[in-house]
Design goal:
The complex is a heterodimer of chains A (319) and B (314). Chain A has 319 residues and is mainly alpha-helical. Chain A has 14 helices and no strands. Helix content of chain B is 79%, strand content 0%. The radius of gyration of chain B is 19 Å and the shape is globular. The chains are: A mainly alpha (319), B mainly alpha (314).
Chain lengths: 319, 314
């Protein structure tokens, strides 16, 4: 009985938030007007609906890629946004924009995903070099690694007069989402769903390379699967809405405190909570300085950092 | 009387300054010289404050890898500045004199830094990695809050703080510069009289207390000094994260000593030297503006990773 309760809560919260998200914004919209007034229906189909979906999809997929990263690196305090994955995706996008601006969006995406993949692999390689008895060193190295890649990206952008692009990618924002401009995120959602089918493998991989091999897991295969999911999702989200820091870090930690580390059980809740957090941040951003908007990434940056600090400083009583 | 290496560093700095002032000097010589000397004084002040602040912070935290900027001091200063614009409004902000603003910013910064970092140093002294991580995340949070407040400010008012957000060695405010130099001189005098105490403090809290030092009070005063130094450098040019780390590592490997009477001036001189040489190189020779800070971030970040990987943290 109890096992289904978190699922029910998650679904109920998401439905309520989506309802709020659809009716909050600059253009007026009421439930009855939706059926009477065709322009309101159009607003729903072109702007509000896609925007809500974009927030849900990016939140869910980023939270899940956070879990995967944490299991592969075996550290609770990492996520793609704080370990250079996002920055390396940005680097790839910049390079394409400078050298081949005429390429279609899918080709640009592919390059960004490729550099993101290199970025993740670089980080995994760095982590192998670190002493295992110093767990907090891994997130520090991740942050600095991201900082170095970011400095490189800034330098290229500065030379090519593309600083504005970087600014757009750095702050995750949904105000530019319209029908026809966010559909890549469904791909990220699909990848997240795929990851769910390998949930058990990821759980075992989280026990470490040697243990999971002894248990009969094809570790290299799972590692490759996880790394490419993380890289693709990061690239897709950065391209369509920009960086959403801390979602992939905070959400899995909270869920694992409540539900433990069995991914097959907890992954749907992680995805749901991630989606809910991002959507809520977007709604707050829309309301806080109406009619202007504050990026959802900024809103969640504050909340997420506060929760992260609480996780860090309150850690001793749990571990 | 003085250490030979310090004299060499000083001569290098003087030479670099000479090159900075006179390279490619044509046309209206006095006008250009005046502009350049303002900039030179700013570069040197920033260099000295970053060098001193880093060494002092490393003494307090008892390791060689932390710097005030890694721990989020710069971000805190930006947040203080943004909150001022936010609460006063752009017009109110512009109505205040530069000197009042500088004093108010520095004062709030000192109070906030002492409260916050006093807490961090107390809570996590045993675990250096926890301390770094907490500091870094605080920095990220301050940046996010600043970004949030900046969005709440009207675009026209936003332009008042924009200047402070990036390390810029090209736009420097004259009155802030004079105030900074005054603050620096005062801090310099205080440090010269407390070098010996700092040497004892570096031995750690228990030993220092055993040797008769009121450690907690001294830590409070030193945190105030660090906050003031960071305010000076950030107010003048904006945040440069990794310069302090580069400089203190260089100073320690050059002086091979734990005496603050040697390390402090060495760090200050090296820091000023790096900035003057770097700025001359990027601005005059490469003709690239504003990329010095990016180069420093890149090199300093690499050094940080190398130091961490070699386990030099304790």
């Amino acid at each position: 009985m109890h096992k289904t309760r978190p699922y029910a809560w998650t679904i109920a919260t998401l439905l309520i938030l989506s309802g709020v998200s659809i009716f909050v914004g600059v253009g007026d919209m009421t439930f009855s007007g939706l059926w009477l007034n065709p322009s309101e229906m159009q607003l729903l189909l072109i702007s509000r609906g896609p925007r809500t979906f974009a927030a849900l999809l990016s939140g869910a997929s980023i939270a899940v890629s956070g879990v995967i990263m944490q299991l592969l690196v075996r550290n609770k305090f990492v996520e793609p946004g704080t370990t250079g994955t996002t920055e390396s995706a940005m680097l790839g996008l910049l390079l394409v924009t400078v050298f081949a601006p005429q390429w279609p969006i899918f080709a640009k995406m592919a390059v960004a995903a490729l550099t993101a993949l290199l970025g993740v692999l670089g980080f995994v390689f760095l982590v192998r070099k670190l002493p295992p008895q110093r767990p907090l060193m891994i997130p520090i190295v991740g942050l600095i690694y991201g900082g170095i890649l970011g400095a490189g990206a800034t330098f290229i952008a500065y030379q090519a007069d593309l600083i504005q692009y970087i600014g757009v990618w750095m702050s995750g924002e949904f105000s530019g989402v319209l029908a026809g401009r966010y559909e890549l995120l469904w791909l990220a959602g699909g990848l997240t769903l795929l990851a769910y089918f390998s949930a058990d493998q990821f759980t075992v991989a989280g026990l470490g390379r040697d243990t999971s091999r002894a248990l009969g897991l094809r570790y290299g295969y799972v590692l490759a699967l996880g790394v490419s999911t993380v890289a693709l999702v990061s690239a897709l989200v950065v391209v369509t809405v920009g960086m959403l820091p801390f979602v992939g870090l905070v959400v899995p930690n909270i869920v694992s405190r409540i539900m433990g580390d069995n991914l097959r059980q907890s992954l749907p809740v992680v995805a749901g909570l991630g989606a809910g957090c991002v959507l809520l941040s977007d709604i707050i951003g829309r309301v806080a300085r109406f009619p202007y908007e504050i990026p959802a990434g900024t809103v969640f940056g504050i909340l997420g950092a506060a929760v992260f600090l609480w996780l860090l400083l309150g850690r001793r009583s749990h571990v | 009387m003085f250490d030979k290496r310090l004299i060499v560093l000083f001569i290098c700095l003087a030479l670099a300054s000479g090159v900075f002032l006179t390279w490619g000097l044509t046309g209206r010589i006095w006008f250009i010289l005046e502009l350049r000397s303002v900039k030179l004084v700013a570069l040197i002040s920033v260099g000295i404050s970053i060098g001193l602040a880093t060494v002092l912070f490393q003494t307090l935290s008892g390791n060689r890898i932390l710097t005030p900027s890694i721990m989020g001091f710069d971000a805190l200063f930006l947040l203080v500045q943004t909150s001022f614009v936010f609460s006063l409004g752009g017009v109110g902000y512009a109505g205040l004199s530069d000197l009042t603003l500088f004093a108010a910013n520095t004062l709030v910064m000192v109070v906030a830094a002492v409260a916050l970092f006093g807490m961090i140093l107390r809570r996590s002294r045993k675990d250096i990695h926890l301390m770094i991580l907490v500091g870094v995340v605080f920095g990220l949070m301050f940046r996010a809050i600043s970004a949030f407040l900046q969005r709440m400010i009207n675009p026209s008012e936003f332009s008042y703080i924009q200047g402070a957000m990036f390390a810029q060695f090209s736009a420097i405010n004259g009155i802030e510069l004079i105030a900074s130099v005054v603050v620096l001189v005062m801090i310099g005098i205080w440090l010269a009289r407390h070098c010996a105490v700092l040497d004892v403090v570096a031995l750690g809290r228990d030993t220092a207390r055993g040797l008769g030092i009121n450690y907690d009070r001294f830590q409070f005063t030193t945190l105030c000094v660090i906050a003031a130094l960071v305010s000076v450098s950030t107010a003048l040019v904006g945040p440069i994260t990794f310069l302090g780390l580069l400089v203190s590592t260089l100073a320690h490997s050059l002086m091979k000593s734990h005496r603050h009477a040697l390390i402090l001036p060495a760090a200050a001189l090296i820091s000023a030297l790096v900035l003057v040489v770097g700025q001359t190189y990027f601005e005059r020779i490469m003709r690239l503006q504003s990329t010095l800070s990016v180069a420093i971030e890149f090199g300093g970040g690499l050094l940080f990773l190398i130091l961490l990987a070699r386990g030099k943290t304790l």
